[in-house]
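Lecture 7 notes. Example A: sequence first, then its structure tokens.
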Amino acid sequence: MRAFYPVIGWHICSQMECLTTSNKPNPRFADCFLPPINANPLQRTSNNRNRNPFAALACRARSSQRQHEPLENPQVKLVIGAGVTLAFEFAVGHFFEFIKIMKQTNPHRSYAQLMKDIIHSKGILGIWDGFVPWGAIQSIAKGSVFSWGHAVTKKTLIPYAEDGRISIQAIEIIAGGAGGGFQGLVLSPTLLLKTRVMTDPIFRNRMTALETCKKSLSIGMKVIQNEGIGALMKGSAVFSMKRVADWSTRFFFSVMCEEYLYKRDDPNRKLTNGQKVTASLLGGVLSSISTIPIDVMVAQIQQASKAGTRVSIIETMREQIRQGGIRQVAGFATSGLMVRVAHVSLTTVIMKTATSIVYEAYDTN
């Protein structure tokens, strides 16, 4: 899985270079997204197709003027993003993340054993441990912040598409990564507190929902009292990097799926909601596979058993190598993969497609 990271970094850096390069675009990847510069479009299409596997998709879009969808109001998108994400996380998202984190911090246990632990004392209500208040706060924050950041970035960059300096596809990918960056700045403390609740054995005991909420709140105070206010940002650097990588790859793969599956013969084709959902699902699956090692590392850093200790990424990997060599590292890096694939693919649908569908319904009415 680690072999994906040079590729991911190369794609992201190439996309960012598109913005700052005016006359000399990156010949390796930027040509897929930038319009032709002083060259015959058909000739450039032929040359690019031989150089890059994605060029055939993007160069078709250059043969005609790409039309962009109406821009979304960032303030309205912020509210819609918060509401849609909160509903999704309460319904299924929190459960997927809960079981994923439990698997990543207890890789030797089966999903059935972990599920039994979660519902043993509290029944089905146990799956919402950590949701109130930290999970709910995180859901509202990540939905609103991402939607706002994505809309603002897209609105800022769209003039570059209108004057022909960058394509709509590239703007969509960059806006997705920027939205993830805004998320990373805001969400690290709530993720840490929610992870502490999920991985603390005391919450596996029988207690009412109100008692669980009170103890969850007390976790935050204990972290500050015992470890200092700075402990709330534990793992924030890895988490922020992870969010940018997550959403850049989710949007990149989703856009590529849209282009390859539906738009290669007509770059201005308006996709149905079903087609958008399908492309987002596939993009989420590919993204989750490529970024799973970072996700595991964040869970390891922020779990309750590591409270008060400094966790080194390098030392964690060395420990895994000492325990079982490369096979152990590979197993560690892909812990919780099945649940993460399900969670990420659905999250991509929610943030990339569902929020826009709700916005269109609001705008129409």
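Example B, a different protein, same format:
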Amino acid sequence: MIKDRYSDFEQDYLGRTQNAINVNINEELESLKKKRELILEERQYLGDYNYELKDDEIYNLMKVEHVDTNAYVYSLHRLDKLGKLMKEPYFARFDFAEIDEEDEDEDDLPEPQDADNYYLGITTLRDPDSGYILVYDWRTPIASLYYESNPGPAAYTAPSGDIKGLLFGKRRYTFNNGKLLRFCDVDMPSDDEFLNDALASHADSHMKTIINTIQTQQYKIMRDYIDGVSILQGCAGSGKSSIALHKIAYIMYHFRNKLENKKIMIVSPNGIFSDYISTVLPDLGEENVDSVLPEDMVNEILKIHEGYTYFSREQAIEAGLSSIPYKATMEFRNAVVDYIKYLSKTIFSPEDLIIEQADKEITVGENELRDLFYSVYADISLMDRTAKVAEHVCDKYRIRANEQRQQIFYELQYMMKSLSMTVLYKMMYTDDVFADKYGYNLSEDMITKENSWEDACALALMTLNMCNTDELSKDVFYIIADEAQDLIPVFIDVLKTFYQGSNYLFVGDKNQMVFNGTGNFVEDIKTIVLKRPLRVYTLDTNYRSTIEISDYSVRYLTDNSTVTSVRHGADVIEETNLTGDVCREAVIEHIRKMVDNGFTSVTLLCNTLKEAQRIRNMLRLPMAIENKITFKALPVYLAKGLEYDCVITYNVSDDLMYTACTRAMHQLVVLKDCSL
């Protein structure tokens, strides 16, 4: 129950806001009904008179129907946002009075009663009668006053220029299903009990939005320039993934004109994380952002190589395959790049071409063929160039017969080192001329029986540089690559080459590598992605985990990184050498205590998916526990970027322990040298 001298005003404003939401919802529902009827009529007309209409009339009708359908979809999205506003109309307010330049005399400065009230939410809401803005979108320029300014003189940048004034106060609100539970005045977003309450809350069914607890540094990263390359190095729990998603929402709000016919794309570490993303963006007021796994991107490039298969990083872990660490290094990426350059000068070894004609024999010299291949048609992709050279020769010497033209094409093909990209790739390891010229220590031993993820990335990079890939979709305006510490250099080059005109935000933590890598993803990106400007941000505060969990987890770091946390909690529990039923009962008892403490999200982390499935089946949690919590058993690599109320680690290898431990928000149990 709210008891405060401002309560009446706040309750009145809430009532006015919710009434406006209801009116907007009803208007949108009526609009949806009319739009649906119109679209159905258009489709009916097109179906009834399809054979009588001219092509241009059909085209125009389909174009109109497409526009009306988009308007209908927009209304659906608007209705969804209004529904979210009904549950939480706004989360913050600030009071601000503008100052005209001629009124900057101290005697003319505005008083608190002169200030306007600005309420912030996930989208803008207007009074349907007066047009007055009741709620401002958190991404509007004026909202920066709340996130970045202290009470007192303040300014923000509007489209018309800088606006100066006085900021008199800021307020934070908590709602539960549309009911105002409480509010309090704050100075900065981090200076109040609301942040600690938010951090102490339980892990939700999906990653949380942080628009109501954004810290000043986080907000500046979200609003910073989008051109060029941005790299965010953040410790576990620093909010870097959330910042990335909020930056997407910010870009979509402010740069819609630049996004016309272009996409924003997230390169996500795994399918589970992609599902989480799909639930967060609508809560920020945006949808329709593509998410792609690195494997999916590589598969799209390699689909022209029928029958090529490889072990993904996860499959390699599960199969116990040992990859070659060298292939995850910058030197290997450089070797592939240099090999592509080498092939661009050596892949075609011309010989004199003899063309038999009825009355004479024509010889096309090797120098002419060399000039055609390496100079005249240098703008044609390497693997498609012989076709162009064959066409040129046939046209020049007036070869008309299809059979003879085909024979010339085949003879030119024989002058290539190979027509198979996979064969060409494997030749890199055995080409002594290449190795000697560029100084690489490659050997046939590096050609593994099972194609690895690193091999697939190398082949994809060769394909992008040597084959015609124009049919692949590349029109992406902004790319966010999460868990960038696990992106090997050769894949970073694939990403850069595939989406050459894009801007980038790479998000990662050098201490959370799950797969092979160089351990220095920031420098790798700087070296490979040469687009400028380039900015690097660093976050070193863990808002997710308690101080106890954070302090325990840093024991497993080897670089003396400093990580801070902001709240205390339960001590970390560590147990060793538990076996069989004793181990099983211990795990169940830990989970039971977690349930008794009110936690609802518990995850057991181990090294492999096979092991996780075995443990999940063996535990056989009592129904009294199963019904009260969401319990998962996962390998560490599938938990990247995610968070849970409580985590139990089971024989997790030391190099993965930092990542595993920092998935826990409130309680951590570590089991070592145990056997279930």
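Note on Example B: Residues 190-195 have pLDDT under 50 and may be disordered. The chain is about 40% helix and 20% strand.
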